[in-house]
Amino acid sequence: MRSRYSAFAVRDEGYLLRTWHPRTRPAGVAFAAGLGWTGLEIEATEAGSAFHARGVVRFRAHFTDGGRAGVLRERSRFEREAGAWVYVDGDIDP
User: Fold this and answer.
1) Which domains does the chain have, with CATH numbers?
2) Is pLDDT at 94 greater than 90 in this prediction?
3) 85 with 48: CB under 8 angstroms?
4) Cβ 59 vs Cβ 76: under 8 Å
5) pLDDT tens profile 46-61
6) What are 4-48's pLDDT values in tens digits?
7) Within a 13 Å sphere around the CA of 90, how many CA atoms are in the beta-carbon half?
8) What is the pLDDT of residues 66-80, one digit of tens each?
9) What is the distance between the alpha carbons of residues 57 and 5, in angstroms, rounded to a whole number?
10) For FRET with 73, which of 8, 9, 55, 80 sits at 20 to 30 Å CA-CA?
């Protein structure tokens, strides 16, 4: 999760696509102009250890957009694919 957040922060599309599950991976990542990521807080995890095939991460990602601060809250689902954790999808909290 932290590595994907960092990839969003530096706009590393290649890494994001490599760490996205093939079943849900988009053709590309659209980065919003003027959006800057400023911090990540992991709120909770479910499963996701070396003994699990699936896991969930609930997080808050802080950002600025056009000089205004905001927070994205999401519950993300991950699965192991060829031994590596990959992002499947997530639910954004209002």
Assistant:
1) 2-93 (3.10.450.50)
2) no
3) yes
4) yes
5) 999 989 999 999 999 9
6) 999 999 999 999 999 999 999 999 999 999 999 999 999 999 999
7) 19
8) 999 999 999 999 999
9) 12
10) 80
Amino acid at 85: W
Nearest to 59 by CA among 23, 68, 36, 46: 46
**How far is it, in rounded angstroms, from Cα 55 to Cα 8?**
20
Give the separation between CA 9 and CA 39, rounded to whole angstroms: 9
Pull the structure tokens for residue 51: 């003994």
Query: How many whole angstroms separate alpha carbon 75 and alpha carbon 60?
Result: 9
DSSP string, the chain: -HHHHHHHHHT-HHHHHHTB-TTT--S---PPTTEEEEEEEEEEEEE-STT-SEEEEEEEEEEEETTEEEEEEEEEEEEEETTEEEEEEEEEE-
Q: What does the pLDDT read at residue 9?
A: 97
